[in-house]
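Quick one from the shared queue. A colleague (R.T.) flagged 2-succinyl-5-enolpyruvyl-6-hydroxy-3-cyclohexene-1-carboxylate synthase as missing a structural entry in our internal table.

Convert sequence to structure tokens.
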Amino acid sequence: MNFSAKPLSQTITQLCLIKGIDHVVISPGSRSAPLTIGFTQNPGFNCFAVVDERCAAFTALGMAQQLERPVALVCTSGSALLNYYPAIAEAFYSDIPLVVLSADRPPELIDRGDGQTIRQENVFANHILYSAQCQEGEEHQLQNETLINVALNTAVELNGPVHLNLPFSEPLYGVTADMSVRPQHVPVRLPERVEIPMDWVVDQWMQAEKKMVLSGVLPPAALNKGTLDRLLLDPSVLLLSETTSNIPHSASITAIDQLIAPLSESEFSELRPDLLITIGGMVVSKKIKAFLRKHQPKVHIHVDPKKAYDTFFALDRHIKVTPQQFFDAISSEHLARQSSYKDQWIKVKNHRLQLHDKYMREIPFSDFLVHQRIYSTINTSYSLQLANSTAIRYSQLFDLSHVSSVYCNRGTSGIDGSNSTAIGMAMVSESPVLLVTGDLSFFYDSNAFWNDHIPASFRVILLNNSGGGIFRILPNAKETDKFEQFFETKHPLNAGSICQMHGLDYQLVSDSGSLEKALDGFYEDTGRARILEVDTSACPNDEILLNYFEFIR
């Protein structure tokens, strides 16, 4: 086995391997040759080549999202590194561990007019957990080892992105059969046990007749079923979860907007919780945010090992444990209280569902109907990745409890890397992956399919309404001058040529009958990844969605 002749490369690769960081996404470049040689020549690493750095970073993000451990990124110097930034920001806000390893020119060449050279040190300052500048030379070896250990341990311990900027002087392609350094490994620290302030928590719990548990993004199995069952036996507890919460339970409210959008002011007052407990990451529903900001809870507790956002401007306490640890502690106290809170709103939920089913039977072919067909026919062995904008918002109106796991890039809620994230997820997932996306998100990230590692089981359903349809449902947006050109961005594109270029199976449908037929065999093994494009450009999608909330009122 060969190694890069650069001691700095040897130090990086050895410490990554020791800490279990063995998946590496590499974009081509010359300055990064020592790193590329170091990773690809070692059979302990799983290396993946992705040319487009923006796609590469989101691909790594999708992998780390699934693996729940850090994935490394390698790029050359210059603007290549800047293309990582959208995914770095998403990882920062979604608590996904990435290790960014950027090659650089030697410091004496920065701002000297040398090619492919920018100021790379600390370039992600506002959205990184840790960044460091290493230096070449034997005299810097101990310092480099310290910086690298801290960076890698931070990614593991705190679940987020870190950045190491690594200058390499020429020659860059030298190899050796023997390692010249044996870096010291500083072990990852186990999280310290945090005591829950049970006296205070119990006091708040017992006082509250109306307790609302609101969940944002969570990985599957973050709360076990036994804990949920015990929690929801309490008639004073109402659980509101979302598609990305991965908390399927019959006694929870999973379609939040469906429940609260039609409420009157007096009903909002009835729903207002005495005690709000929030868990998980970002919440999709704008309506629940607006409600809880206007009708603030008497007490708000956020439960998360790492951070707490004061989303509703009412945060009283951040308890730094996992939701499982918190609710296990609560249930051990047997603190149920008599209340009609849960039953009252479950009845409203069931009434809304009856109206929902009636509405779905009456509407014509449209985005809304297509989403209903997708989720009612999904192969239950598939994991689901959702694009942002309309795809994630429509999904919130349907029951996805039969889907094994649901993901979406909700840290920054951008449309820029949905394809790449789904592909990265599919590359390492034990389950096959389905991406449901809109046209703008799909075409924005079309370079994602320039990737030799896409599994044949990968599936995409693309809803193409020829523009940013979500803008049509925003208040007063359609009345804006030049709306179609600069907001909706109307276009005539379809995915056929992209699929032909990248060797993907492709089918285009534009009516209910064709959609039903296409979905019937969509998940069958064809030996190639497959994209089903659904053209809804002629449908009054905005009217159908807005009328829905009036109908269920």
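The longest helix spans residues 341-362.
The chain has three domains: 3-174, 198-347, 363-551.
Added to the table.
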